[in-house]
Prior knowledge:
Elements: H1 4-11, E1 34-40, H2 45-51, H3 58-62, E2 66-72, H4 80-87, H5 93-96, E3 102-104, E4 114-116, H6 143-150, E5 156-160, H7 163-170, E6 176-180, E7 185-186, H8 195-208, E8 228-231, E9 234-236, H9 248-252, H10 255-272, E10 281-287, H11 289-297, H12 302-325, E11 329-334, H13 343-348, E12 355-356, H14 363-374, E13 381-383, E14 387-391, H15 397-412, E15 417-422, H16 423-427, H17 441-446, E16 457-461, E17 465-466, H18 484-487, E18 488-495, E19 501-502, E20 507-508, H19 512-519
Parallel strand pairs: 1-10, 1-11, 2-19, 2-20, 5-6, 5-10, 12-17
Antiparallel strand pairs: 2-18, 3-4, 6-7, 8-9, 11-18, 13-14, 14-16, 15-16
Helix pairs in contact: 1-10, 4-7, 8-10, 10-12, 11-12, 14-15
Amino acid sequence: xxxxxxxxxxxxxxxxxxxxxxxxxxxxxxxxxxxxxxxxxxxxxxxxxxxxxxxxxxxxxxxxxxxxxxxxxxxxxxxxxxxxxxxxxxxxxxxxxxxxxxxxxxxxxxxxxxxxxxxxxxxxxxxxxxxxxxxxxxxxxxxxxxxxxxxxxxxxxxxxxxxxxxxxxxxxxxxxxxxxxxxxxxxxxxxxxxxxxxxxxxxxxxxxxxxxxxxxxxxxxxxxxxxxxxxxxxxxxxxxxxxxxxxxxxxxxxxxxxxxxxxxxxxxxxxxxxxxxxxxxxxxxxxxxxxxxxxxxxxxxxxxxxxxxxxxxxxxxxxxxxxxxxxxxxxxxxxxxxxxxxxxxxxxxxxxxxxxxxxxxxxxxxxxxxxxxxxxxxxxxxxxxxxxxxxxxxxxxxxxxxxxxxxxxxxxxxxxxxxxxxxxxxxxxxxxxxxxxxxxxxxxxxxxxxxxxxxxxxxxxxxxxxxxxxxxxxxxxxxxxxxxxxxxxxxxxxxxxxxxxxxxxxxxxxxxxxxxxxxxxxxxxxxxxxxxxxxxxxxxxxxxxxx
Length: 547
């Protein structure tokens, strides 16, 4: 497979300078000129712990900095859009307004009544799957927006494998924002395409058009090479990412995808000369392939081992490109959520309670039972079996209340359900301020709750229940639960010259934005964001503002 260094050569411009001299260690170094933040989609704390001793590239470099192995996406809705909305805003979803990847709005004229988190549903003819990408649903500013307000010369760039990752990290005021749409890296309508993007798209098109052989297997990955039957004659766990020419779907769920996204980010840094102006710049990079690999093959097979080994190399190549610019930069890396392996492999590997969800818990199935009993018609209940459920507001209040009572009775009685909370219960719960691992399920739901968008009630499945009844028709594994395997993610910070340390106690992803604001000396008012600044300088000096 082509490394990121080779991919970057196709899209990048020549390096500009040599390594900057290391800052003095006696005091906090001067503010860096460039913030580089990387989100690795579905990069759980469990995966970090499992593989961290195996890495020798970019992940190894990051472990020389400030390491927080127990970061928390503290809220209940551990999905891509809510998670990314926390990373560079400093706020929980209860404040960002991004309660899920999708939510239901019965007022929309669409048949499915579904709104996608990063779309403008008012665009005529759009649907929840054929949508116009927009930042309109994000209710708070990102770190980049705050930097622009602090110094208008700041440039904000966001690049990702998913539109929702690029939008939620970039925010409302971006200089460049690009995401992969399944065929090419694209942006908002009317934006000029930089040469770096044109080169990247040509390189990726050529790459997809070329068949790819199976990857070589490192020794440390060989124990993961075990085929797991999932039904209908299908297996996962022993894949090596061989791909036929033209197969863009397999390209997306492979290490090739992150290599291309990082190469594009490197090219934009070089072409735009980020970090070489009068104000600090910021670029966010959404590496999405780990999530696609996790959904397609699970988290504990050969596929995930090969994905993370490749990403380690690609990150190392990416940092080498940054080093060659001579720019003083700081890196942060974390994830939007964790992930849970497929139950078939879990049961083979000493987790016998792992199971797939009973199809009777699908909200459509519950809706049909409820409407039949109450003499109603149509889909008065909408939502998912893990998270929010909405009741048609057009129902008269007595009918609405009977629907909710009956639906909750059915769902709560199911042996795979841990808890069901009404919106009133969640809204009445004080926002928690204790360490995130101590939060009750209700407190986790509170930090995912928005009164304008959340459902009438919320469902928490029991631990190790995968809400995919049939793994042969799409994803085999997923995330999105209230449980820590989906909430815990690593948080890593690196800058040339700082003394590294590791803090095993819990922190939150909402702490990332105020931490990076502290590094560049940008003030935030108390209470302006939910998170707090983490001092990433070991010893008595501090990277956080004095209190």
